[in-house]
Amino acid sequence: DAMVIQNPRYQVTQFGKPVTLSCSQTLNHNVMYWYQQKSSQAPKLLFHYYDKDFNNEADTPDNFQSRRPNTSFCFLDIRSPGLGDAAMYLCATSREMAGPSYEQYFGPGTRLTVT
Amino acid sequence: AQKITQTQPGMFVQEKEAVTLDCTYDTSDQSYGLFWYKQPSSGEMIFLIYQGSYDEQNATEGRYSLNFQKARKSANLVISASQLGDSAMYFCAMREDPNDYKLSFGAGTTVTVRA
Fold first, then answer.
1. Which of A27, A29, B35, B77 could bond to B93 as cystine, CB 3.0-4.6 Å?
2. How far is A11 from chain B (nearest CA, A)?
3. Low-confidence residues of chain B: pLDDT under 50
4. Are A103 and B35 inside 8 Å of each other by CB?
5. Mind listing the pLDDT tens digit for each residue in A69-94?
């Protein structure tokens, strides 16, 4: 009964070679989020979708893009990965955005290595 | 300014004993929510417990309880009867304002349970 699924779990890419990470959800939640988490640090929000409305965090580099073709799927595209982009990428969903009690459900993450 | 402070980078606890993880927060909002997440080495962020700022009783979920002291702005997590499977990173997070989608995470505390 997996709820938030991320593929692949481990991804190796070369410096400068575009890479796409995938997230899908079976919860039918309106909101999907992408976080970047570097080693031993807290997750950092990159952007989120409310339905089809995209919201980029102010400090998210242009190198990071996202697509949400439908409610269930959301993709993270890194156009030209640098060594500093090596991290765990976490996808999360929530039913709504408003209200303090709307918890976010996280996927297992994709660990990206850049060689 | 840091919104969530977790002062304990790492802790050791003996199996079957209780452990308290500290979390202090900073907000001027009256309505906010506090969350604790567990992140095992596999990477998935697992929601543990939630406390709303207007909740008068401390939240409990099985072996997890939240010691909420509003005046002190602290929301410590207590894990009772620790198990080896509790070894993980634990994050405290806050959602301010009912209409704010963002979770502010603390730096995390690594818990290692010893047999």
1. B35
2. 14
3. none
4. yes
5. 999 999 999 999 999 999 999 999 99
